[in-house]
Amino acid sequence: MKLLVRSVQIVDKKSPFNGQIKDLLIEDGIIKEIGENLSAGSAEIIEAGKMYVSAGWLDMRVASRDPGFEHKEDLKSVRQAAAHGGFTEIVLLPNSQPVVHSKDTLNYIRQSGTDELVKLHVAGSVSRKAEGVDFTEMIDLHEAGAIAFTDGEHPVQNADLFLKTILYLQPMNALLMNRPEERQLTLYSQMHEGVTSTLIGMKGMPSLAEEMMLTRDLKLLEYALEKSMYKTDVPALHVSLVSAAESVELIREAKKKGLPVSCDIAAHQLAFHDTDLISFDTNLKVNPPFRSVADSDAIKTGLADGTIDAIVSDHSPHDEESKNVEFDHADFGITGLETVFSLAIMHSGLSVEDIVEKLTAAPRRILRLPESSIKEGIKANLTFFEPETEWDFSKSYSKSKNTPFLGKALTGKVRGVINNGKQEWYK
To answer: What are the GO cellular component annotations (predicted)?
Structure first.
């Protein structure tokens, strides 16, 4: 591959060319030269026009359903959806069938195209079958390439298991990711607990369920680090899918105390509130649920002040039978890989540079991955996009179509991705 991209605006805080409009010459998968009026020679030429370029985006929370539920999503379709969403790397949750609690399942996923356009990172499960009872062989999984450890869609309810996992992972400098939810308080719940849930007769999930579990996790993290001889300058605990105002404040205070903790939010949390569920649209049934305007405002403040480190898709594909049913029987989840950037542009209030930071540098730092930047002589891992371009989300490349955004007009268009010497460009 020899490619010249002319007059593209660079968005990369780590690059000496940040904010500048430059030509990029890419040859054999390497950024060969960055400058102005570069000679094309035999290179393919792309005229950037309104395009920006950043380091390739990384999504920290994706459910692929493969192996076991390939009719919902397989590894090929999840890569296609990711690429169209601008992601060159994604982290897959362990909630497949079988669960990623052994090296065999981990290797099946990791070896399914290591040189593909979209790189797959795999999180190993904390407990066998992600049931929260017995530990997995985390050392073996770590040595086999597990990027982090989590029970994924299942919060770690057992406090002893959580504490020992933190201690167990410290010598390996490995990350624990957990979604805080006290499930005894959310049993049979369908949406956020509030005025709307009362009006439409749905059992609600109180914010308290998230706040209680997060308080426990942060206390146990602090206790574990007091007992451990190992110190870390990267997060030891990553809190997934923060949704409540009090949770944002708890993490803000934990960071002020110096606790090694990070967190993310799902992009779709920025677009809806609990009042939108009065339509009984099952595509709006997610967990954590869409909460109040006050919670949404707190999330936006947390994004702006750096309390919230990353934005993820929480891509959760489901087939028609799982969603086209009565609301209380529908599964939770949205397919989100293709809409993350648009939702962030439209609803976060962040600058383009700050959004890119939460899709690139922050996830890589949290996951202990090398920095990816736009500099001469390094591997081309790049995402091209137009922040102000409007587009119709008329076709999804996921096998599942459980998204409320399909058929809608959005702002912020991905134009192309380059990684592993491969490229794709979109109209």
So the answer is: cytoplasm
